[in-house]
Amino acid sequence: APVRTVAAVDLGAASGRVMTGRVGPDLLGLAEVARFPNIPVTVGATLHWDVLSLYRSILEGLRQAGPVDSIGVDSWAIDYGLLDADGKLLGNPVHYRDTRTDGVMERVLREVPAEELYPATGLQLLPFNTIFQLVAARDTAQMAAARTLLLIPDLIGYWLTGQIGAERTNASTTQLLDVTDGKWSAQLATRLGIRPAILPPLREPGDRLGVLGKETGLGGVPVTTVASHDTASAVIGVPAQGQRFAYISCGTWSLAGVELDAPVLSQESRLANFTNEVGIDGTIRYLRNVMGLWLVQECQRVWGVDDVEPLLRAAAQVTPLRAVIDPNEPSFLAPGDMPARIGEACRRLGQSAPQTQAETVRCILDSLALAHMSTLDDAQRLSGRAVDVVHIVGGGARNDLLCQLTADACGLPVLAGPVEATALGNILVQARSLGAVGASLDDMRALVRATQPVRRFEPQGSQQVWREAALRLDRGGPDHSAA
Ligand code: LRH
């Protein structure tokens, strides 16, 4: 098979990037072409994504990438733009951290009980799931004018090619997709006052989407549908062998879980707030969202500290497990004074608040490691899938302290990397469609294993201290992760 060059557009909540990949049967080379910040904008009282700025940066990045055989786009999940009857975007997409969904989930659950919603959709309850955002927007003029809902990568794909559709892995994060028959749940939508007609036809990762429109100035290049949910692409890029592995896709969020062949829809799974997101080739990502490095990022913003490395070095010197919090406390979700909120959470749990930046960061990292531990414990128990190793991919794989703490807490070796698992997953799906790599998920992972550096962290110390630290969180009352 010939070597192919493809471009991956990967939009994260904090930054976007355009990467190129050179791919062949024994080759997987990655180069970063452009990286740009993703800065939300408050207009009125609403937090928006600056989607035109992202689009401009994408086009610039693609221009710099030079000639490629195909382009694929992935992004964070759940958020969407609405098109009117002329195919024009209605307003700027709203950020999932916006407050418009406050209290909406609770209202919806009175209309459709969780006992019914969970087996139908398989999704964990996150207050900002697309379904709740749509209910929050139900009576707006914008919604009345809306004809088509496009998730962010589908919106970018539409602007690039003129083609409309809903890529399946990302569609599965809306809570409007039926996890059993794989179709949009028109009935559920209608029941909640969401017009099913706005939900576009589903398409599959690997499908040819279209070609770049003339007005992009980059004409004629094919665009391939990838696993457009960034987490779905990241899990493709996990260099795992066999099935006995857990993954943590660690960036703004820590998405921690296992890969299964079928969803787990039990009552226990629902109460533990585990999600069944659709992956490539019929796989299920059985995981729970842990509020990840957002907690550090938001501290950095408040402190005005751009470089995280000195903070991490200082945090490594702090006494371990001085104070721990539940990262999934709802109060951490919105932008704001994170250091103060962390301090309050510590005090509420009967611990003294961190006094320095280093102590605050250490508190967050200890707490994330602890959340990784309980999440992966739950994932194994609820799914029956035992694991021998934890793969950390994404930006968090660069964070040695977090990788080591996670190994210690889980009592398992951590394999860290690749940092760019999402872009690799994006690239591999395109390459597969072009016939440049083996056809199976195992083939794709074998190529990642053979070509990408991975670092190993052995568990140290006794897990007992972590189990004891976990007990401190019980004083906080019921498990917040279950909403
Ligand atoms: C990670 C992610 C995650 C979603 C969140 C909104 O970037 O896609 O899987 O839960 O963003």
From TrEMBL:
Record has Transferase as a keyword: yes
GO biological process, one term: glycerol metabolic process
Gene3D superfamilies named in the record: 3.30.420.40
Keyword Electron transport: no
Listed GO MF terms: ATP binding; glycerol kinase activity; rhamnulokinase activity
Top-level taxon: Bacteria
Keywords assigned by UniProt, alphabetized: ATP-binding, Disulfide bond, Kinase, Nucleotide-binding, Rhamnose metabolism, Transferase
Any single GO CC term annotated in Swiss-Prot or TrEMBL for this entry: cytosol
Any matching Pfam family: FGGY_N
Carbohydrate kinase FGGY N-terminal domain residues: 68-237
Ranges for domain Carbohydrate kinase FGGY C-terminal: 246-433
Family: Belongs to the FGGY kinase family.
Listed name of the protein: Carbohydrate kinase
Lineage of origin: Bacteria, Bacillati, Actinomycetota, Actinomycetes, Micromonosporales
